[in-house]
């Protein structure tokens, strides 16, 4: 579904360029602002930020408590804020419950801590099945959750954004924040993965 | 609206097929669409809710087969035309026919960082007290509005439990259609998978949705 | 299945746009597809229910944009391949690679009139008495099977009244999947528009669906 | 949605011809049988049959009663039977109730009395809206049903097929069966039209 034929790519390239030309000539959009928006989400805002939050939560019980109580305020301590993260909630995996995040109605995603969502997150197969058959979806990510573990799916229907705090991998006692963060993939913070030692 | 965007529980789309080597963008036009969409929103002609409604109002077969940034692009064209900034013929020809309406609100590159960092919080103050408390049994209203709503079809008519009383938030059903922010209390409501999908469902599944007060009734 | 075929109550498709001068077919290949579909059914490899399920299992975006006889054609290819009569490569190349499996059941032109006039009644006898009577209040079960079903999503969980007890009929949910005819009592159940679509609905609307016994529970 | 570009027409023509070639060579389908099926629904089975049924119901109260009680048996008296009409039900319009037929799940239609369905009957706009907003749909057919008249929509979810018996137009007293049948359009027997004097 997401493959564009070359024809489509050519057409879309021309159409998008035409619109940008008009917007710029009318003084409605500054090209450098577009560049800056792209650079923000390509280079600066991405899952590394979220991984840092998770690593700190694993290392500092007080921070984990603040994160659980008010994630927006807790990540702000680390200088993290912004668009699509204005009302952040952290949901913690335990042996009893695995959390999974979806937006069935569009593509809501915690940009401030994870950057832009991957294509599959925005696409019909995931959005349709995550709320009905999450174990089937997780199996496609190579993830098998024990039958006795509850799966809680968070459908992002409002402006609250959900960040999954995965369980800390065993054997990481005493690891530095950087080393811990390297265990935390983007998928682990969506719930389609687990944190693992690299 | 019961549009193509309301995908929860729909079937037939095949596997999720995550690509571990996937890049954020698949063609150079995609990031330009992202940037234009974010920048054009700063003109202040439309709300985030109106832009979501423009996307879900695209032809269903197209919504389901287009790459996501194509959906954004087509919706951006709709919004720019609706608010008198770019006509379809201007967009098609790349020729300006009329001056822009709000160049004074153009998002300058120097302001991007602060605008993105500030975001657009939707929490509001409200004098009215909340109607429901954590632990309350509630039923999601069985409603089928033709306009924008954020109550997915798969929970309508089903019974859940209030997990958290959040805060008053801007109401998308009004805000998407020029009805103002009309803030209402927002709740997180948890439904069992069996309540949503039937008795055969995995008993270890629960689904949380965030629901405005008007989406709920006592059960 | 909650597939693209389950259209009742969906929105965003635009006007119905009836064309008073419309012809039955829009291109010469369309009647050939009709004829092949009816004729190939006589081979006895699949039931009407299986053929419906093959159509609703096509990719949703295609189902919603293809002309109807294209849907029939693509589903016919699926059925012929599934039952070993025509492989995809044979259909693509027009070159026969293996002999047909059931030429002995070919529908002869001379039999068409009688076969069409006889049709395929689905009424069956059943020892079990009916569970519901005309006038009973019933609720349509909230079920979401992945296989074929004929209980549309818009009535699931809603309360209606039995308008008529019909007769035992072949059960599509079983018969589409090789589960045999498994006949069950069939009922016509009437729902008010307000029950289906919410309090804002025209009070002068009622909708009747034909529902097998397992689709219903006392209410 | 139903417009095929020339490219599509060419491709479909070739694909359909290829399949027919293979089916015929394998001895699975006889081309003359295809021709006969097409001829049946192009020339012999169509809304004229249904119009004859309606005209007779208007003229003969006894027939109307039999039609209401068991439409399959009643139309069989007129030599009408067959595929997609095995279990026929006649639903009668009155001043109190207007009937409308749809198949939200596919394209079920009473072939035996109306022939093949029109494209709009099989298409998403009609199938989606008929059960939710029938008055809006009828307005697109130029039909305005009084607000105090109930609209009963019949969703053909099983193998029962529904034939709407429209109200007899005023001023047709004593008309012949042929003249009466000429008042009855296909749409009047679906419920998207009324019977009218030609």
Q: What does this protein structure show overall?
A:
The complex is a heterotetramer, with 2 copies of chain A (198 residues) and 2 copies of chain B (219 residues). Chain A is of the alpha/beta class and 198 residues long. Helix content of chain A is 47%, strand content 12%. A two-stranded parallel ribbon of chain A has the order 1-4. The relative contact order of chain A is 0.16. The longest helix of chain B has 15 residues. The model of chain B has no long low-confidence stretch (mean pLDDT 97). At the C-D interface, α1, α2, α4, α5 and α6 of C face α1, α2, α7, α8 and α9 of D. β3 of chain A pairs parallel with β4 of chain B, so a sheet runs across the interface.
Q: How are helices and strands ordered from N to C of chain B?
A: HHHHHHEEHEHEE
**Largest sheet geometry of chain B:** 5 strands, antiparallel
Largest chain interface and its two residue counts? C-D, 97 and 80 residues
Bin the strand percentage of chain B.
Answer: 15-25%
Mean pLDDT, all residues of chain B: 97
The main sheet of chain A orders its strands as 1-4
**Distance N terminus to C terminus of chain A?**
32 Å
The structure class of chain B reads alpha+beta
Shape of chain B: globular
Widest beta sheet: strand line-up of chain B = 4-3-2-1-5
Largest sheet of chain A: 2 strands, parallel
Compute the CA-based radius of gyration of chain A.
Answer: 19 Å
Which stretches of chain A of 5+ consecutive residues score pLDDT under 50? none
Number of helical regions of chain A: 11
Q: Structural class given helices, strands, pairing of chain A?
A: alpha/beta
The protein's oligomeric status is heterotetramer
Query: Would you tell me the overall average pLDDT of chain A?
Result: 95
């Amino acid at each position: 579904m997401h493959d564009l034929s070359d024809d489509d790519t050519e057409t879309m390239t021309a159409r998008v360029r035409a619109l940008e030309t008009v917007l710029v000539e009318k003084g409605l959009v500054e090209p450098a602002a577009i560049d800056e928006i792209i650079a923000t989400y390509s280079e600066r805002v991405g899952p590394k930020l979220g991984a840092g939050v998770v690593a700190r939560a694993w290392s500092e019980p007080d921070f984990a408590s603040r994160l659980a109580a008010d994630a927006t305020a807790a990540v702000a301590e680390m200088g993290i804020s912004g668009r699509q993260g204005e009302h952040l909630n952290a949901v913690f995996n335990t042996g009893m419950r695995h959390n999974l995040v979806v937006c069935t109605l569009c593509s809501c995603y915690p940009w401030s801590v994870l950057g832009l969502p991957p294509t599959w997150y925005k696409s019909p197969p995931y959005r349709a099945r995550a709320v009905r058959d999450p174990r089937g979806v997780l199996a496609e990510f190579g993830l098998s959750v024990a039958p006795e573990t509850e799966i809680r799916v968070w459908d992002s229907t409002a402006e609250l954004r959900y960040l999954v705090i995965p369980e800390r991998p065993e054997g990481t006692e005493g690891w530095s924040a950087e080393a811990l963060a390297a265990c935390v993939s983007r998928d682990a913070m969506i719930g389609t993965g687990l944190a693992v030692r690299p | 609206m019961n549009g193509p965007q309301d995908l929860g529980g729909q079937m037939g789309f095949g596997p999720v097929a995550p690509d571990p080597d996937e890049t954020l963008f698949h063609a150079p036009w995609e990031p330009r669409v992202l940037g234009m969409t974010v920048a054009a929103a700063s003109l202040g002609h439309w709300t985030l809710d109106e832009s979501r409604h423009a996307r879900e109002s695209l032809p269903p077969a197209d919504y389901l087969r287009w790459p996501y940034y194509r959906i954004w692009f087509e919706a951006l064209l709709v919004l720019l035309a609706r608010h008198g900034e770019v006509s379809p013929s201007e967009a098609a020809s790349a020729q300006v026919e009329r001056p822009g309406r709000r160049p004074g609100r153009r998002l300058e590159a120097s302001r991007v960082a602060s605008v993105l960092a500030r975001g657009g919080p939707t929490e509001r103050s409200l004098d009215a007290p909340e109607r429901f408390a954590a632990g309350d049994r509630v039923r999601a209203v069985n409603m089928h509005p033709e306009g924008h709503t954020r109550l997915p079809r798969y929970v309508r008519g089903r019974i859940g439990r209030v997990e958290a009383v959040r805060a008053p938030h801007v109401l998308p059903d009004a805000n998407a259609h020029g009805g103002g922010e009309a803030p209402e209390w927002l709740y997180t409501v948890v439904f069992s998978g069996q309540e949503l999908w039937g008795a055969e469902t995995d008993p270890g599944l629960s689904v949380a949705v965030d629901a405005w007060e008007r989406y709920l009734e006592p059960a």
